[in-house]
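FAQ

Q: What does a record look like?
A: Structure on top, sequence underneath. For example:
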């Protein structure tokens, strides 16, 4: 089974009525996985970015293997907002985490109160998203893995990715293009539906 690129929202029968709910979403993943790009692609407001130029001081600390063209890095967070009217009225507040493990101390505060998280994966540096996956598993925060399909990066079938990431079957893996507004927005819808499904299942126990 291959990953299919997210291009349109899956069907849903939820009625789009009533006032919008507000939801906090975390966008995480490895260094250079596309978190800042995804937030910027979907945000209806000018996104808040805390990027700094990568300097020689980070040599030996932040590996640029596979992402040699990267010149800036997030040091605190990214922030954006997007409003949906379907599948239900909702406003998503997006918090992008720094990718480097040395900024992991910011992940806890950024994740507090989140209904779910998108873990962006780059197949050129797949191991870089292990820390984010472990963080959300330990925090019991629902998450999905979105494979950001960079130009020239190898495409792997879902079973191979699931094995490599040691992901249980209930964690969705989808493909996305963080540069494309529609693809990025649909990734967020997949996450919200996944989190809602888990919440409903928990309520039924």
């Amino acid at each position: 089974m291959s990953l299919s690129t997210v291009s349109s929202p899956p069907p849903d029968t939820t009625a789009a009525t009533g006032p919008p709910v507000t939801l906090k979403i975390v966008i995480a993943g490895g260094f250079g996985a596309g978190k800042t790009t995804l937030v910027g692609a979907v945000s209806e407001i000018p996104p808040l970015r805390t990027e700094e130029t990568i300097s020689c001081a980070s040599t030996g600390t932040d590996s640029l293997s596979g992402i040699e063209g990267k010149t800036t890095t997030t040091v605190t967070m990214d922030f954006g907002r997007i409003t949906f009217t379907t599948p239900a009225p909702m406003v998503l507040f997006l918090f992008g985490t720094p990718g480097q493990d040395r900024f992991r101390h910011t992940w806890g505060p950024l994740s507090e109160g989140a209904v779910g998280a998108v873990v962006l994966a780059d197949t050129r540096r797949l191991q870089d998203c292990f820390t984010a996956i472990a963080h959300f598993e330990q925090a019991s925060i629902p998450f999905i893995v979105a494979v950001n399909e960079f130009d020239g990066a190898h495409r792997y079938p879902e079973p191979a990715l699931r094995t490599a990431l040691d992901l249980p079957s209930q964690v969705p893996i989808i493909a996305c293009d963080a540069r494309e507004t529609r693809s990025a927005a649909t990734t967020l819808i997949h996450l919200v539906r996944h989190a809602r499904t888990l919440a409903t299942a928990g309520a039924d126990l």
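Q: Is there anything notable about this one?
A: Residues 181-204 form the longest helix (24 residues).
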